[in-house]
Amino acid sequence: MKIPVTLKVNGETYDLMIAPYRTLLDVLREEMRLTGSKKGCDAGDCGACTVLLDGKPVNACLVLAATAQDREILTIEGLARNGKLHPLQEAFVKEGAVQCGFCTPGILMSLKALLDTNPAPTLEEIKIAMAGNLCRCTGYSKMFKAVESLDRGM
Ligand code: FES
Ligand code: FES
After folding, report:
1. Which helix (H) or strand (E) holds 144?
2. CA atoms within 13 A on the CB side of 140
3. pTM for the predicted model, two decimal places
4. Which mutation among 138, 142, 144 tests ligand 2's pocket best, with the greatest number of atoms within 8 A of CB?
5. Same domain, 63 and 115
6. What pLDDT tens digit does each residue of the chain (154 aa) get?
């Protein structure tokens, strides 16, 4: 059985027919072809699938797509605007904070949520915001440096 669901993703509206048990992550990746949000564990452990739902970071693998109806969803594909990278993305590139990149979309979304409410976080606050995002490559320190390098009036 499929049900009609309307999802607002990165400012665009998608009218879909989907099974009620499908997760937001699977619908983003398989129906909309927005594959920037990664499927690491599919169990809420790694944070690779993090997107913003009404401005708050969530694990898209734990959210049923139907429950995101009519809410604002922001994925990594919506972070750059008008062909220009978000300052966080630029800072990650500049500081070399990306290695394999699998964790990067989720981490950037968690950090965006932090900076939207707290433009000048302390190192401790940055660590707390990233606590649900695992990275097996970088050791995290270059990511912390990238956030700390940002213009705090952003
Ligand atoms: S894929 Fe969602 S938390 Fe790992
Ligand atoms: S850069 Fe490879 S998992 Fe983070």
Report:
1. helix 141-148
2. 14
3. 0.96
4. 138
5. no
6. 999 999 999 999 999 999 999 999 999 999 999 999 999 999 999 999 999 999 999 999 999 999 999 899 999 999 999 999 999 999 999 999 999 999 999 999 999 999 999 999 999 999 999 999 999 999 999 999 999 999 765 4
Residue 50 Cα to ligand 1 midpoint, Å, equals 7
Buried b (16+ CB within 10 A) or exposed e, 9-30: bbeeebebebeeebbbbbbbbe
Same domain for 29 and 72: yes
Pocket of ligand 1 contains residue 105 by CB under 6 Å:
no
Pocket test for ligand 1, best of 45, 76, 110 (most atoms within 8 A of CB): 45
Give domain status of residue 154, yes or no.
Answer: no
Domain count for the chain, please give it.
2
Query: Going by CA atoms, what residue is nearest to atom 3 of ligand 1?
Result: 44
Whether residue 99 sits in one domain with residue 59:
no
